[in-house]
Structures
1.
Amino acid sequence: MQILITGGTGFIGRNLCKELVERDHTVTAMARSKPTESLPAGVELVTGDVREPTDVEDAIEGQDAVYNLVALSPLFKAPRGAHDAVHRQGTQHLIEAATQAGVDRFVQMSALGADPNGTTEYLRAKGEAEAIVKASDLDWTIVRPSVVFGDGAEFVDFTKWVSFPPMLSGLWWPYITPLPGARARFEPIWSEDLVGLLAEIIESAEHNEQTYEFGGPETMTLADIVRLIHQAEHKSARILPIPTVLAKIPLAIGQHIPGFPLGSDQGRSLDIDNVTTSNDVDRFGRDPAELESLRAYLGGNKR
Ligand SMILES: NC(=O)c1ccc[n+]([C@@H]2O[C@H](COP(=O)([O-])OP(=O)(O)OC[C@H]3O[C@@H](n4cnc5c(N)ncnc54)[C@H](OP(=O)(O)O)[C@@H]3O)[C@@H](O)[C@H]2O)c1
């Protein structure tokens, strides 16, 4: 198949490019800029912006399938309206161009909790994008993964950044990690497990018009994850849970400080679990318990 991956230069996109090339597909990755690291061998790059309908039309021409993996990270503050422009409007452009070009399969990468009435701009834009995909005449599949880990993932580095505060770590004795959102639950899934599932989606019509929630083998709180990350660096951690309301106040102020990386939506996210209602990996013949765990990955026991 001729396959376009929008956002194909990103963390999950690169892994998916490699997986699809290995399955003998012809893969084109689309992103706004040339990546600093080269793409897997055999993958073509087109530069373009999903906010521009003509860029999207040019990239989709001649493709049999499209994966939409474009992302604006929810971990950092975004300019007002940016999630809407990239996730909702970008998806609208892709669906229109894919319909026009007669694309056979469309896979939309969404997120757990995506909802037009969600509490963050990211979740609302993702929810509206899902509605656009479902209303189309294409053969579509929507995927909502929990947080994804693997080489090059943002999540582990971000968690380190917020939980090893460089300004504070030297001041606390014994070593204490103040952690807002400590009880929020996650079901981390390994990028390589995820892209295998994504690749299978376009191989069978049984996945048409399905929304799948994917998680890994373990449900863990943010505190559990921080402890694992500290252990992997041979440090012990004493977590001091901070009530989210206390974190939300500085984040609400940060919302209005130009250049400050976090804002109100990051505060709201602290109250949101990131777990599946039912882990759909079993619908692909996978036993969740056999997937790679974050614990094994951080411990250097990669499969
Ligand atoms: N990573 C996770 O834990 C996770 C969890 C749940 C859901 N997801 C979803 O999975 C998908 C992939 O996530 P990821 O972690 O791989 O993201 P990522 O590493 O941040 O990659 C984002 C990609 O989108 C491209 N992009 C951004 N804005 C664009 C635009 N306006 N037009 C065209 N390309 C654009 C980026 O390249 P340029 O910047 O060069 O344009 C890059 O290739 C996203 O839909 C995300 O919401 C991810």
2.
Amino acid sequence: MLDIPVDSWYEAVSLRHSQRKYSGEVPSDEVTARIDKVCNEFKPFPGARAVLVREPANDVFKGAVGQYFFKVTEAPYYIAFIANMNAPNIQAITGYLGEGVILEATALGLNTCWVGGFFRRESVMKQIDLQNDERVLAITPIGYSKEAADRVGVSSKQYRRKILDKLIVSGEVDDIKWAKSALEAAKIAPSAANRQPWRFQINDGSITVSSNSKREGFGVSRRLDCGIAMLHIELGALATGVNGNWEFLEFPDIAIYKVS
Ligand SMILES: Cc1cc2nc3c(=O)[nH]c(=O)nc-3n(C[C@H](O)[C@H](O)[C@H](O)COP(=O)(O)O)c2cc1C
């Protein structure tokens, strides 16, 4: 079991952005081994797992048009995020786990892009073995951006995000250092089509994450997006030295982070 490397993942929160055009360059053996390690050892909750596929992924990504969906090209490798569909809270758990892997990749200087809708499941399933109850919920290419300016640590892309006031449905963060740090990190989390479905309630010593709708959309559950935001919340809190624990809740609530 891997403990969260707080400093490097917290830093990666603001370095990560989605990249769809890759150079084809293969990561070094050392970097690949680090990715394999996080896939094998980051098991925060039961039911989800990540598998690194060391094969070019051109055939796996579908083309699409629009502001948020471009075909991913020339990625040397990809990672599949696999869910046991019988496990409770599996969508949020897969988001949380997948984002951990993505932040580790980012910390290693690799570009990534969550892809939940536009990939060929049949092609992925030819390259990995799934158990009966398992489903690939999303994948990410990993590699280096084709454009040097878009590489991790070089790019200064601005995040197009809602302001915190629009995401907080009750409570205030102004005077609470850990909660402010947690929500600033959650705010810039990635979500399908940048829909930012997470809403937050702040109470004494806790943050509750809820989904703004029960609908799916783009073939991706909003619970998965919220699971990604959960990891960002935890990293934001840990970065201020505050520990806590997650308890899962009844949908459309997702989970509550209670400071310990
Ligand atoms: C669960 C999930 C699924 C996504 N699916 C796709 C996809 O199918 N195709 C794509 O091009 N981008 C996809 N994205 C990337 C989002 O469009 C992107 O994260 C969002 O626009 C925010 O931009 P940023 O990641 O650069 O901050 C997905 C993101 C998430 C979190």
